[in-house]
Amino acid sequence: MATASVNHKPIYRTESRNNRRVFVELKSADGSDKECVDALTTDFSESGIGLLTYITFPIGTEVEVSLDDDVTIKGKVVNIEPWPDYDLVRLGICFLEKTDSWLVKSPCLH
After folding, report:
1. Tens digit of pLDDT for each residue in 52-99?
2. Which of 7-11, 33-37, 100-104 has the largest mean confidence?
3. CB under 8 Å to 6, separation ≥6 — which residues?
4. Domain range for residue 35?
5. Average pLDDT value over all residues in the chain
6. CATH number at residue 85
7. Number of domains the chain is built from
8. Could you tell me how far CA 49 lies from the centroid of its own chain?
């Protein structure tokens, strides 16, 4: 993966967030990299999700987040926040589409 720039602008959230932790898989939506990256949810809302991972994607990259084989959503990386104490990054993902199998509505997350 390419090294991404960090968005240092403050994030103002207007939606409530759920802070439940769930492991997911993350991969590029364009198919250029078939490899899945493990990630841990930090929070999620109706419009996006925060993910902790060791590998980052550049801001603007369209990604797929999978909870199970049949629960996948598409989103775009909109923020990157380093977590240097843990050698991790937090990716802010804005959802691009919502379907019946949408991650936020998954019974695994309620």
Report:
1. 999 989 999 999 998 766 678 899 999 999 988 889 999 999 989 766
2. 33-37
3. 80, 81, 82
4. 23-102
5. 77
6. 2.40.10.220
7. 1
8. 5
**Assigned domain for 28 exists:** yes
DSSP bridge partners of 24 = 39
Residues 6+ apart with CB under 8 A from 52: 39, 40, 41, 42, 83, 86, 88, 89, 90, 91
The CA distance from 58 to 91, in Å, is 10
Q: Which of 31, 103, 93, 21 is nearest to 68 (CA)?
A: 103
Q: Is 104 helix (H, G, I), strand (E, B) or coil?
A: helix
In the block, residue with structure tokens 């103002």: 12
User: Are 48 and 78 within 8 A, CB to CB?
Assistant: yes
Report residue 38's pLDDT band, with 50, 70 and 90 as the boundaries: very high
Does 109 reside within a domain?
Answer: no
Question: What is the average per-residue pLDDT within 13-23?
Answer: 66
